[in-house]
Amino acid sequence: MVIPMIIVFKYSLYDNVIMNRNPTFIGLNNYVKIISNNTFWIALYNTLYFTIFSIIFHLLIGIVFALMLNYTHLNYILKSILRVFYILPWLFTATIIAVIWRLLLDPLGIINHILNYLNIIENYIEWFSSTDTALNSVTFVNVWAGYPFYMVSLLAGLQSVPQDLYEAASIDGANKIQKFIHVTLPHLKPIILTIILLDFIWTMQVFPLIWMTTGGGPLYATEMLSTFTYKLAFSSYKLSLASASAFIVLLISLSVSIFYIKKQFNKE
Amino acid sequence: MMNTKDKYFRYIVYLGLLIGLVFSTFPVIWILSSSFKSNTEIFSLPPKIIPDSITLIAYNSIFEDKDKIQFFVNSYFVSLIVTALTLFIAILSGYSFSRFNFKLKRFLNLTIISTQTIPPISLLIPYFGMVVFFKIFDTYIALILTYLVFTLPYATLMMTSYFNSLPNELDDAVLVDGGSQFQALSKVLVPISLPGIVATCVYTFLLCWNEFLFALTLTKSTEMRTLPIGIQLLMGQHSYEWNEMMAMSILGTLPILFLYLFAQKYFLAGLTSGSVKL
Predict the structure, then answer these.
(1) A18 and B128: CB-CB below 8 Å?
(2) Which candidate in A109, A213, B73, B75 could, as Cys together with B226 as Cys, close a disulfide (CB 3.0–4.6 Å)?
(3) Do residues A148 and A20 both lie within one domain?
């Protein structure tokens, strides 16, 4: 793991590696090229947009679903069945999720048909191939695919909230919302922080989902740092330039990871 | 007695649950239904959840196509081999992490946690370089070795924490009876660590089964492609065989569904233990 990281850094300082037997050392030139590349900045923006909105909706949906499943008046069997269904999106691998949503969001697909039927849209929308909707579409798909992780983690957290805290709050006259804010949320806070950090790290690395739905297009509308790097390396075979980009991605990721690593290590 | 406010609240929760159910399940039902349609019926109007004529055409053509069967064979083969190897190494290294004290332990622990956060794309190019250098490009070995690198750190951590939860007295009992450390591990610790072992297996298997980026880059010929790449190849073709893709997706999700339903507890442990320590 450490060795490849050193190699990728070494590659990034040469002009043409792997393909060429005797590459020349060109210092930080590749980094300058990457940073002055417009597409890199678009990819960075898209990655952050995709990541941040994914996290926000993951968290919202995850909390709401977990709270609903934890509702006291819900029959136990019904609860178990619903739980299985709610987790379903999690069982699909990213390529399959991409295929599913390409069918559903096809211009002639079922989603357009339903929206049209309900008079929400007039014309059939090309969700993945229009520059206006592509980024939001892939983000939506990622939200669908990722919320169960939050739900499961938060559900486990909810079940460990001591019941007497709620009773005490009731005696003090707290209503449901107050109980949620003052009892539930503080209890869930450590879990929420950890999963957000982890989700941030994972979502920034997104590749198969984008590759299989839009391929980064149309016109860079969904280009992510990962697809940008991949294309540099294996579509245009600029392996050194790609290494520089890969190393930048690594640095960005590490700057977030450091919080996660610290947190995990303090637990040990 | 319930007051009206609580009653309304209850209705809202039920409504929410229903919306949630549609949100999570509808796409799944739709692909299931599409996999039983003929390709011409996929976009027919009005859309039907239960097709007019339920057909196994899509499944049949997958089972008749050698290339497509090969995708499944490759995925199962690579995933199972990596799972077996990972488990073997993780049990040994987890045991030594848990039972022996050595100086670099803290440092190694830190490294393992850190590796979890490294973006695969950063490692892709050096791996590609190494795989080409060792002339194992487009072979099972390339995939297996690469996946081992990804699964081992965390699998080791999982086994270590499981062994940590077992008291040292168990080993001592074997040692007192004249057994070796290895016997203590294989005869006593491994059998009672089954939950930890299952969770580790599930984690490893899922990681291999789902891997895309490295499988895409490190293999080239159709016979070496794993399932996720196979599906991508199907997508690349000019006329989409939607029903076949949906059937492949269903078949490709079966092992995960199976793991989930029969090892639910371990499944969740395998996937969430990294984030939430309960």
Answers:
(1) yes
(2) B75
(3) no
Both A135 and A209 in a single domain?
yes
Q: Report chain B's terminal Cα–Cα distance, integer Å.
A: 36
Is A221 a domain residue? yes
CATH number of B59-272: 1.10.3720.10
A198·B111 Cβ contact <8 A: no
Same domain, A78 and A9: no
- Mean pLDDT for B30-41 is 83
**Do A89 and A147 meet the contact criterion of CB atoms below 8 Å apart?**
yes
Work out the minimum CA distance from A173 to partner chain B, whole angstroms: 15
Whether the upstream peptide bond of residue B126 has omega within 30° of 0, thus cis, is no
Taking only the tens place, the pLDDT of each residue in A171-216 is 888 788 888 888 888 888 888 888 888 888 888 888 888 888 887 7
Q: Answer yes or no: do A46 and A28 share one domain.
A: no
This prediction has a pTM of: 0.84
Task: Give tens-digit pLDDT for B70-120.
Answer: 889 999 999 999 999 999 999 988 888 887 776 677 777 777 777 777 888
DSSP label at residue B46? S
Q: How far apart are CA B83 and CA A258, in angstroms?
A: 29
The domain that contains A83 carries what CATH number?
1.10.3720.10
Task: Check whether residue A27 and residue A119 sit in a common domain.
Answer: no
Spans of chain A below 50 pLDDT: none
Q: State both tokens at B185.
A: 């591990």
Query: Closest by alpha carbon to B113, among B154, B85, B159?
Result: B154
Residue A64 contacts B, CB cutoff 8 Å: yes
CB pair distance less than 8 Å for B276 and A195: yes
Dihedral sign, Cα of residue A197, residue A201, residue A203, residue A209 = negative
Domain range for A266: 1-36+238-268
